[in-house]
Amino acid sequence: MANLGEDRFRYPAGPPACALGINTNGRFTRSALMKSLLSLVAIVFGSLLAGCKPSAPAPAGGTSASGSAGGTQLTIAFMPKSKGNAYFIAARQGAEQAAKDLNVKLLYDGPTEPDPAKQNEIVETWITRGVNVIAAACENRDGISTALRKAQSRGIKVITYDADAQPDSRSFFVNQATPEGIGNALMDEAARLLNGSGDYAIITASLTAGNMIDWQKAIEKRNAEKYPNMKRVALRPCDDLKDKAFAEATAIMNANPSVKLLMNICSPAVPGAAEAVKQSGKVGQVKVIGLGLPSENRRYVKEGVTDSVILWKVQDLGYLTIEVATAVAKGELKAGAASFRSKKAGEVKIAGDNVLLGTPFIFNKDNIEQFDF
Amino acid sequence: MSNSAVVIKRHFRELSVAAVFGVLLLVLAVIAPGFFSRQQLLTTLTAAAPVLIAACGMTLVIVCRQIDISIGSQFALCSMIAGLLAKAGLPMPVVALGAIASGGAMGAFNGALVAGLGLPSIVVTLATMVTWREALRWSREGEFVKDLPDHFQWFGLGQGGGQGVILIGAMLVFGVLVLAMKHLSAGRYVYAVGADRESARLAGIRPGAVTFVVFVIIGGLVGLAALLNAIRFADVDPKTGTGLELQAIAAAVIGGVAISGGRGNLWGVLAGVLLLASIAPALVFLQMPPQWEKAIQGAIILLAVAVDGWRTRKEANIG
Amino acid sequence: MTMSQAKSNWSWSWLRRLEALLVIVLVMELLIFSRTGTNFATRENMFETIKLSVEIGLLALVMTPVILTGGIDLSVGSLLALCAVGFGKFWRDAGLSWPLAAALTLGLGSLGGGLNALLITRLRLPPLIVTLGTFSLFRGLAEAITQGVDNFTGFPEDFLAFGQGYYGGVIPAQVPIFLVVAVMVWLLVHRTTFGRSFRAIGFSPEGARYAGLPVPQRMAIAYLLSGVATALAAMIYVARVGQAKADAGAGYELLAITAVVLGGTSIFGGVGTVTGTLLGVAALAVLKNGLQLSDQPSELAGILTGGLLLLALAGEAAMKKISARRGRLATLGASRGQSG
Question: Is it true that domain B37-308 has CATH number 1.10.3470?
Answer without folding.
Answer: yes
